[in-house]
Amino acid sequence: MANTTTVSTPQKSRPQMLPPDTRPVERFTSQSDYLTGDLSLGRQAVLKDLRRYLQVPYTTLIRSAFGAPADISLIRQKLTQDHILKTEGAKSQWVGFAAPPTRSNVSENVTFRPLTDVISSIFDQIPNCDVSFTANPFTTPLSERGNTSRPDAYIVHGRPAPNPTHWFDLVVPFEFKKTKDRSAKRDNEQKIIWCLHQIMREDPLRRFAMGITIEDTDMRFWYSSRAFLAVSKPINFTTEIDDVISLFYSIGSGSREALGWDPTIERIRIGNEVQYKFEIGNRFYTTTRPLATYGADAMVGRGTRVYEALDEEGNLVAIKDSWRDDDREPEGMILERILKDIQDKLGEEEMAEAEKYFVKILAYEDIFVSGKVDKTFKPEEEGDICFEWIAIDDDPFLSTTRHLPSTGHIPSSEHPPPELARCEVRPPSTVIPRRVHARTVFKEVGIPLAKLTGLVDGLNCQHDSARALYYVHKAGYVHRDFSVNNVLWFEGDGRGIGKLTDFEYAKKVGAKESHDIRTGTMHFMAGEVEAQHYIFMPEPDPATVDGDLDSPPFRMNFLHDLESHWWGSMWFLLYHTDANSPTECPKEQLKCFNQAFPRVIAHTSRRDFFTLWRELSAARATLSMTYQEKCLAIFKLSITLRQCYNIAEENFPDLVLDDCLQDKAHKSVRDTYVEVVEELGGSQIQLKPVRECQEMKRNVDDSPSHRAEKKARRA
């Protein structure tokens, strides 16, 4: 008898959803405006991604970042002796700031120049201090990513300061304003946030970044981690002398680790290229090229960077460095459990077969810094829970000064198409998140389906990834994050093999953890996952329905993974065309692509694309004639999947997800790819993005010869 899983109506829980009027979109740092390299557009993208920052009492944030303050009485005394600080009775004042900056009639860089004496004098009194303060608003730090923005001042690592200065060297950037009005505050905020963003995306060694803004006498301390962006409430830097001294003493006496650097990564130069040496499990891996580092462009998130690397024996591997939620298990541990459950349920032989379709993990570990697991902190651990989330005002029009434009700061070779951005939709929350720094070593370096250019290779890759999902589901898990970047193709002596990866969000069916949020790459989410409720149950009988229907809390199941898999194939087919015999209607194909992948969640055009055959048929008709008919079965898979949904939800609110249904769905998927590949035979069709056809047509239409030809025809 087939094993049957019946999900009855449990006690309702708080839904993991945003308000109904909220339409989440992909990260702005993955969209075209950010990718242009324009500083103004990039800054707006970063602000829109962040949406908010955490405001924390000054003392709380400083203690969280640096620990308990040191005794500064001797430093204060020396500052007075050196005429940096003036003390009269109980009142103290910096000699260089006898009047507040707002009363200054000279430029900002001149107004705040006395800070050089204040901060440098504090650093001079710290034994073995290895940082320097530089106020030089006309010098742009060097950047590997072509960024030409420049802070008003900065503390750099090195004494004396390195010349020239690189963004790698910056410890704390500063932004100044003589006034404290709304415009000044906003301009400083936008610029310091960009500085912190630049530090975190530029340098794989940086675990967190710090900054300081001053508006008139108001000084605020900024702290950016992969969990949140925090800012202190302002203090008066001209009167709250001890707080100022204590802050710069903490910075000046801090080790590289305490200032945000990762001691388990070393930056090295091989020829003319910068590479990195990662330590994992007491072994070292030297990078050869980045595979995907765009995850670090978002200030808050996993900050994932993936590199091709060589181990100590010269073997090629892949290294992933990321920050997972602290209540999630490591990806390697999850995969181990999946394989063990496959072995327990299906036997040793099937487990060995399943391993072929998973990217093998050689090692994984949480990173230790200064003897402790490297985690982001929570300010409330300091005993003060007086914090609040502040919405970011991203209006660009109140900025009173400009940085130079930034050009070419995004390496296009490793950035995916914008529509492949990962999207995680969380409910509004006042909880301060925490993330754990982790690293994983993969045995093999494959090619993502998104970058494959062989049609048959891509379809074989999808066949094999479906096989991987079969074993995931047989083990009692759902993957929850299928995308064309999470399935890799490995070329071999035969036809090659596709393998599934990225198990960080995989979850045991029936597990009660609180992570049933909409997660994954936006355009591969199943429709029910987008909606966060079941949509294929039968309509109730109007004669018998009485009030509202009971509805169980939404949970992902194997059908959602298979639908995500199908969306992956739709992306592969509609994004590309035959390089040698392209579609005759690229404009129409792009229109269908945008209908299927509208770049916002829960768009009706996407639902129609999955549920209405007329939409699918119209999309298929736009494909290149060399494979249009032969791929019909892949489009028809949507019908099979909808039938499976109907069966599963037939007795709603009870959901019946049994082995028979699971086997039927998987067999249909596997057979479809076998059929299509056989139809294509030994075809060597190579693909290119269909956008290239549209761009080529546009260039031809705009050429002088073509315009002259059209003019002659009209005449």
UniProtKB/TrEMBL annotation:
Compositional bias ranges of the Basic and acidic residues kind: 696-707
All residue ranges annotated as the Fungal-type protein kinase domain in the record: 161-571
Pfam families the UniProt entry points to: Pkinase_fungal
Segments for region (Disordered): 1-26, 696-715
Composition bias type Polar residues, residue spans: 1-14
Membrane-spanning residues: none
Classification via InterPro entries: Kinase-like_dom_sf (IPR011009), Pkinase_fungal (IPR040976)
Domain of life: Eukaryota
PANTHER family linked to this entry: FUNK1 11, FUNK1 6
Name the record gives this protein: Fungal-type protein kinase domain-containing protein
